[in-house]
Amino acid sequence: NSTTLQISNYNDPGNTFFWYKTATLGTLLPSDDLLQEGQDYTDSKLTFTPEPGTTHIYVKILKPGAENDCYFTKSFDVTTKKVPAISVSGTGTNANMNVRPKYVDICEAGEAHLNARETTSPAIGISKWMWSDLKNTAANTVSPQDTTLYYITAEGSNGCVAKDSIQVNVMKKPILQINGGDEICVNEKGELTFDPSTPSPGP
User: Fold this and answer.
1) Beta-carbon contacts of residue 36 (< 8 Å; ≥ 6 apart)
2) Lowest-confidence segment of 7-11, 17-21, 50-54 by average pLDDT
3) Could you tell me if 80 and 53 are in contact, meaning their C-beta atoms sit under 8 angstroms apart?
4) Using CA atoms, how far apart are residues 194 and 93, in angstroms rounded to an integer?
5) Residue 35's CB: how many other CB atoms inside 10 A?
6) How many other C-beta atoms can be found within 10 angstroms of the C-beta atom of residue 169?
7) 165 to each of 111, 149, 173, 182, 197, how far by Cα in Å?
8) How far apart are CA 175 and CA 192, in angstroms?
9) Number of helices and strands (H, E) in the chain?
10) Which of 4, 15, 58, 145 sits at 20 to 30 Å (Cα–Cα) from 178?
């Protein structure tokens, strides 16, 4: 992702800004890279995409009419923290982790076993897990009454945050209606039928 840097207190009209990425903080070498290719040299802001880790920034500020050897300088570091990568999975009566949203099927009153893990390489380390149902462990056993989408947030040891989600589909039990009302005598046979499409009036 890109970031924007800005120098304050040096915004006089006509000032010229030269932004460099340097090998050593506070030292400008002929081999150091000029960063604002294609950007206005008179702009006190610089938008660029830093590399992972720490980038040394050196700024030369020339006032109008100043010679090249007469300028102000500013130096500072930009540190880019890596966002952790995580993956969530689950088990139930059926599951598919290759679609979005990932999902697990369970029967009504059943359980789904959800689990999250870090996939960053090299690992950053996760300092905190938090599910949308407020469980704070990587593993989570759930038994929702209705289909529910569960979110998990992971905070890396560097403070950066990642998110993932998985849906638990609740498969309702079929309701059977048994029909039959003939009166029969002992040892006689009767006939009962059921219609699986007819809702039951009660337990």
Assistant:
1) 17, 18, 19, 43, 46, 48
2) 7-11
3) yes
4) 27
5) 19
6) 18
7) 17, 7, 26, 54, 34
8) 16
9) 0, 16
10) 145
Of 21, 19, 58, 56, the residue nearest 36 (C-alpha): 19
- Cβ atoms of 143 and 78 closer than 8 Å: no
Of the candidates 172, 176, 181, which has an alpha carbon nearest to the alpha carbon of residue 147?
172
Q: What is the pTM of this model?
A: 0.66
pLDDT computed for residue 187 by the predictor: 75
| Spatial distance between the Cα atoms of 189 and 203, rounded to a whole number of angstroms | 26
| Cβ contact 142:88 at 8 Å | no
Q: How far is CA 19 from CA 51, 56, 75, 77, 89, in A?
A: 16, 11, 10, 13, 45
Amino acid letter at 162? Answer: A
d(CA 140, CA 116): 9
49 burial level (CB within 10 Å; 0-12, 13-18, 19+): exposed
